[in-house]
């Protein structure tokens, strides 16, 4: 049983502690991956702060890439030595959610098991079924997708969550049709990917809404045709002015309930609102049911961009290789594993697109 270094969350709101843990060998259907790069996602911060329900002690980290080092019984791929993107999307492939193409919401697996333990035998939870803030992981084989060697590990890692979540929110959950108008609320890591997803899928105009002028400049570089400051007293009016009408699709990528309160104002009759950003557990938003019922507006929850990872990750990796999907500019900074708390703090401060830990 390998002993690995992992960043352990021992108390909510406290810095992660790097500990040596035992990682059990992969069981049936599982594989072991040596992590090369892991990005910090806002969900990791929510868990570390206790904003999402969790069990302690745990290891976070779910946007990763690495090389396959061992197969459990019954696993035939990806091949040992191959580069894989590691995601939190664990699925059974046989339940109604999986069979209807929604494997991101499959719940048909056992969360009671964890491959990690302290040397004294105390279990350490693999939060989000991944635990990639560590030198190695043991995950279910369905969570890994092989990608070409052309894509560097720090870029490949981003495909594991932020990129599929943003692009998928537009293409899968939002079902954007070419020529439609899109507004993306929040131009952070996920928002920029929603913007490039809208560009790739053929939107007519893409308006970014953010509280920061510098993030609106980032948005323009990723394909936004217009930018509106969220601090405007009625940003939805400015968006409608830019479009000449209300939007067809609004993607909410921030976890602020105020953004959810405002979202229906951006879309017109039949408009769709895709809910991606995750406020803390227990927070609520208000909307007017009459308006949605009368105008045919739809609220669509979207976890991990409704991605079918074995289809969407190779697609996005290939677009990157062709120069049609931007990943390089998503990486704000590289950090060592020992700097993980500084990298988390930098992400929490809100300026970063993606901070990536490189092993
Ligand atoms: Zn994430
Ligand atoms: Zn399933």
From TrEMBL:
The cofactors named for this UniProt entry are: Zn(2+)
- Look up the domain of life of the source: Bacteria
Report the EC code(s) recorded for this entry.
Answer: 1.1.1.306
| Enoyl reductase (ER) domain span | 13-357
Output the Gene3D superfamilies linked to this UniProt entry.
Answer: Medium-chain alcohol dehydrogenases, catalytic domain, NAD(P)-binding Rossmann-like Domain
The GO molecular function terms of this record are: mycothiol-dependent formaldehyde dehydrogenase activity; oxidoreductase activity, acting on the CH-OH group of donors, NAD or NADP as acceptor; zinc ion binding
Q: Which keywords does UniProt give here?
A: Metal-binding, Oxidoreductase, Zinc
Q: Give the EC class as a word.
A: oxidoreductase
Keyword Coiled coil assigned to the entry: answer is no
UniProt keyword Repeat, yes or no: no
Entry's family note: Belongs to the zinc-containing alcohol dehydrogenase family.
- UniProt-recorded name of the protein: S-(Hydroxymethyl)mycothiol dehydrogenase
Species this chain originates from: Roseivivax jejudonensis
């Amino acid at each position: 049983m390998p002993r690995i270094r992992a960043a352990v969350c021992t108390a909510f709101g406290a810095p992660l502690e790097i500990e040596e843990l035992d990682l059990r060998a992969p069981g049936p259907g599982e594989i072991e991956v040596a992590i090369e790069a892991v990005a910090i996602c806002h969900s990791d911060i929510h868990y570390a702060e206790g904003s999402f329900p969790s069990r302690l002690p745990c290891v976070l980290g779910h946007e990763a890439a690495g090389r396959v080092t061992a197969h459990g019984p019954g696993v035939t791929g990806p091949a040992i030595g191959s580069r894989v993107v590691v995601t939190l999307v664990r699925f059974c492939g046989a339940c109604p959610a999986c069979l209807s193409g929604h494997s991101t919401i499959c719940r048909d697996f056992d969360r009671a098991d964890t491959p990690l333990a302290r040397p004294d035998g105390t279990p350490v939870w693999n939060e989000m079924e991944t635990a990639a803030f560590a030198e190695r992981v043991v995950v279910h084989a369905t969570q890994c997708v092989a990608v070409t060697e052309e894509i560097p590990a720090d870029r490949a890692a981003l495909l594991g969550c932020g990129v599929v979540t943003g692009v998928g929110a537009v293409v899968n959950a939002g079902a954007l049709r070419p020529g439609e108008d899109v507004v993306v609320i929040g131009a952070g890591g996920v928002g920029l990917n929603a913007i490039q997803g809208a560009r790739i899928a053929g939107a007519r105009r893409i308006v970014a809404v953010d509280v920061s002028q510098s993030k609106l400049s980032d948005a323009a570089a990723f394909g936004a045709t217009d930018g509106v400051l969220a601090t405007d007293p009625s940003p939805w009016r400015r968006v409608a002015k830019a479009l000449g009408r209300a939007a067809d699709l609004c993607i909410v990528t921030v976890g602020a309930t105020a953004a959810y309160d405002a979202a229906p104002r951006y879309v017109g009759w039949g408009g769709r609102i895709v809910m991606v950003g995750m406020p803390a557990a227990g927070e609520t938003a208000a909307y007017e049911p009459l308006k949605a019922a009368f105008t045919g507006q739809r609220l669509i929850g979207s976890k991990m961009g409704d991605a079918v990872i074995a289809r969407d990750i190779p697609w996005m990796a290939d677009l990157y290789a062709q120069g049609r999907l931007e990943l390089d500019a998503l990486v704000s900074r590289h950090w060592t594993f020992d700097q993980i708390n500084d990298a988390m703090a930098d992400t929490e401060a809100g300026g970063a697109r993606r901070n990536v830990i490189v092993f």
